[in-house]
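A common beginner's mistake is to predict each chain separately and then try to dock the pieces by hand. The better habit, illustrated here, is to supply every component at once so that their relative placement is modeled jointly.
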Amino acid sequence: MRRPLIAGNWKMYKTPSEAEKFAQELKSIDIYKERDILVCVPFPAILSVSRVLSGTSILVGAQNMYPAKEGAYTGEVSPLMIKDSGASFVICGHSERRQIFKETDDFIAEKVKAALDYEITPILCVGETLQENEAGETFSVIERQLRTGLKFLSGNTIEKIVIAYEPVWAIGTGKNATPQQAQDVHRFIRKLIEQNYGQSASCIRILYGGSVKPENIDILMAEADIDGALVGGASLKIESFSRIVGFQRI
Ligand code: PEP
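With all components supplied together, the output reads:
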């Protein structure tokens, strides 16, 4: 019922020419047909990567945007701009943006809304820090991030979003949540959305992110409420990404 989604997050890696070369290599991957594959690339590479991947089933997304159509926001990039460049997804509230750029739940909620206003699929990232995890606050933190992050959404629009559970202590650290730990949080997220939006929650895709690699993707994907992955480091190399998204290169 829920089509799995594997999303790469290239973060601030790859110049436009490196990104274009990598996109050419992606075209040679024999992708698992039952999965959607997405690459969220740096702003300057969205256009060229979209052009290279047009006509393939690989989707292109952005890693951020500013929640306004246009205006005097020096240095920012609008939903319209990313969409016109070829992005159909956007990551909202990645923990690096929350921590380094001090993005708040309220600001992230505006981004989720703006993405939907422009028919871009937002991937809302939630997740607890190590300190919060150790203090037993995982579920309360996630509940707060979700309640605020989704506050502008109605029952009709909720189906259009993707959620990524990314425990901050697992991002780029090599440590990952066990499949059971991740499943427990994913189940909690789905239940919470069900309580607020009804049965629509059953079709929302909830991705796991945090040191996903070829060695652990299958065991994570085997869990009932894990519908895919948001992959950072391992999405940067064709060898590891091709093994995560499906099969070996043709
Ligand atoms: C991420 O960037 O969202 C991420 C999960 O990174 P990594 O896979 O490197 O932990």
